[in-house]
Amino acid sequence: MTETIRRFSNKVGLPRIIISAFFLFLFILALLFKLPINTLISDSIRRFGMYGILVLAMVPAIQSGIGPNFALPLGIVCGLLGGLMSIEFGLKGTQSFIGALLISLPFAILVGWIYGILLNKIKGSEMLVATYTGFSMVSFMSIMWILLPFDHPEMVWPIGNGLRVTIALDTTFGQILNNLGAFPILGINIPTGLLLFFFGCCLCVWLFSRSKMGTAMKAAGDNPKFAVASGINVDRCRIIGTVLSTVLGAVGILVYAQSYGFIQLYQAPLMMAFPAVASILIGGASATRAKISHVILGAFLFQGLLTVALPVANEIVSEGNLSEVLRMIVQNGIILYALTKVGGGN
Amino acid sequence: MAHMSNTKTFNNNLENKNTSLNIKSIFINHSVTILFVIICIIGIKLSKLPLFFIANELLTRITRNSFLVLSLIIPVLAGMGLNFGITIGAMAGQIAIIAVTHLGVTGIKGFLLCALLAVPLAMLFGYLTGKLLNKTKGQEMIASMIAGFFANGIYQFIFLFSIGTIIPMKDPVMMLSSGVGIRNTIDLSRNVGIKYALDNLLKLPVFKVCLVVALFTIIIYTLFRIYKVKYKDYKKEKFFSAKYITTITICLVIIIISCIFAFNSNHLPSQLKMFKNIKLPVITCIVILVLCLFNILIVKTKLGQDFRTVGQNKHIAKVSGIDVNKVRIIAITISTLLAAWGQLIFLQNIGTLNTYGSHVQIATFSIAALLIGGASVSRATIGQALLGTILFHTLFIVSPKAGKNLFGDAQIGEFFRAFVAYGVIGLSLGLHAWKKRIQFKKVG
């Protein structure tokens, strides 16, 4: 009996069991407090789709061997730039969303490519350098948000210089995927467009990892020495992984922004990499191994946990943001756990 | 003849080449520092702030921050890189401050009580951090950074939600009106807390202090040299070595400048006259000097040698019978404890405790300062720490005003200094990893 339990916990992973149990526990608490369950479930699903692609961005990075992409803000600012330019050009509705995606693509590819070259020079210390590259890029772009010559009245401050801190997307691409074919089931709102887009992206990444290039990339990540011996250009594979991850980051933030209804600038992207990294780790990935199933499971568990925790925490303590504190503990705890697995004993 | 002169010119050429190579290598090795000196000078020019203001502010900031920066050195020595976990030490310091303010002990007594109370907390936290870092060898820096975030979550949980519910405490001044959780800001001013407890113990005009210190340096150093030359086995060495002469010259220059400012300032232009009024918190400076001394002396002990051996090569250390894990834990514990004290010095100068924010940026700013001074992941000295603090905080003082003068927006300056702090850390760590990789390739 104990043997079976141990085998089960080894297979699923201890942190995942704890977090799932905690999720269930919160859910039961929510039932006990008579909170509106169907709203909670719709919110969970919406946030799952909203964060999903940002989590998905970790997959090519981990598979190509550069580890969890802590420099996700690089992709994020590219996506933001695309979104802003699409608004500036006066695009509306669906056009503006597609426009934003298309405009952000070349930026993301370029930035990802340069960043990939940088990462090849510093093999072994990717995670820390990535974190600080991301941080410094966010600060640099904060300067740019003030200086860049945008002048669409919905984006700039009426008085003074620069872009607003949050830009409403009501007239452009706000909720565009969420409302696409959305339908209610048993009081639960299903954002069909959002989910389809997310699963579509997952499918693309999955298909890519099945292609010749994707297989080479995975081999390069799994065992660089073996990959070199079998004639794979490891450095090139790592660059491809970085570019893909950055592009997914850009797409991810646009999906996030349309679902949220606002574009957030300045310091908002600073810490965004950490929840994404934590999500995929909760899903069962490690710093060297990641699959699409990890993304889906992890995004659902982590976002669901946070969505349910917010009202439940408010029932227990009316003041302060307990769920935010909970997020910090869970998120950084899981990253630490994963790091202890990377380093090994000696 | 011709042959000889040829060799001579050849030798000359060679020497020239050597010196030029030296200059080039100096430029490369100190590129970050040199770049910063230039940025600072441009910033000072652009900000158009009066020099007196900058100097005064800078002095305050040096005494406020250098203890924290110096607390980073020992883990570097032990090969664990830059300790991003000093935030955890800072938290220990803040917990002590909250407790002592609650108890109502103020002034220097309160400060000493804080320092005492911080010791067990910081040692416990340091031990736990050390345990964690032993499990994440090779990734210490990112692990200590994430550990800082994680500890911040627990810290917030304790002070926002546990106090008043699980931990019984009643204090209407420090706690939120609901009776649960500590307020965002806690006033530490003179009558209720430890503001200026250390700084105001003894404050003297800076130039008079310089004068006295320089005089003492000359006397003590000369006596030391005499003792060494006469009684020790240094008889071959000349009494007037190059190092001795430079030290004495620098001291003399300081004496002359100090004398001009302290006693004869009437003839100086009015802008410079103000410098006479700058005062130095002497006790704080002495505490910082003691820490410098501690950092120098610990290298000479058995423990310090163990740090170095572990830092150079873990395997050799293990073979020669050093308990590597234990040494690493000790290094992190010392660093955490020093950071806790550093945070006390920092906060007694600031005068208000921002319960949930004071500690957050401590690690980033201290590490950026150390790296700007020319340190790297594997080498950091006291001089680099002090120089880095000066440069980084000059930038801090001038950048908002410079941004406003240049672009008409003070925010740009603030973003710029954040960019610089993050960028410098990313850049130096990247450069270090790159150099290490090249070395590794050459060997392998």
Write structural notes for this entry.
- Chain A: It comes from Crassaminicella indica.
- Chain A: The chain crosses the membrane at residues 12-33, 45-63, 70-91, 97-117, 129-148, 182-208, 239-257, 263-283, 295-313.
- Chain A: It is found in: Cell membrane.
- Chain A: This is ABC transporter permease.
- Chain A: InterPro entries: ABC_transp_permease (IPR001851).
- The complex is a heterodimer of chains A (346) and B (444).
- Chain A is mainly alpha-helical.
- Chain A is 71% helix and 3% strand.
- Chain A contains 14 helices and 4 strands.
- Chain A has helices at 2-12, 14-32, 37-56, 58-63, 72-88, 93-121, 126-147, 192-210, 212-222, 224-229, 234-260, 273-282, 292-316, 322-343, and strands at residues 166-168, 183-185, 188-190, 262-264.
- In chain A, the strands form 2 sheets. In chain A, strands 1-4 form a two-stranded antiparallel sheet. In chain A, strands 2-3 form a two-stranded antiparallel ribbon.
- In chain A, α2 (14-32) packs across α13.
- The longest helix of chain A is centred in the first third of the chain and has 29 residues, at 93-121.
- The radius of gyration of chain A is 20 Å and the shape is globular.
- The relative contact order of chain A is 0.19.
- The mean pLDDT of chain A is 85.
- Chain B is mostly helical and 444 residues long.
- Chain B has helices spanning 2-29, 31-47, 51-70, 73-77, 86-103, 107-135, 140-162, 206-231, 242-263, 270-273, 282-300, 302-312, 314-319, 324-350, 362-372, 382-407, 410-443, and strands at residues 185-187, 203-205, 279-281, 352-354.
- Chain B has a two-stranded antiparallel sheet with strand order 1-4. A two-stranded antiparallel sheet of chain B has the order 2-3.
- In chain B, 41% of the residues are buried.
- Residues 4-15 of chain B have low confidence and may be disordered.
- Chains A and B meet through α7 and α14 of A and α7 and α17 of B.
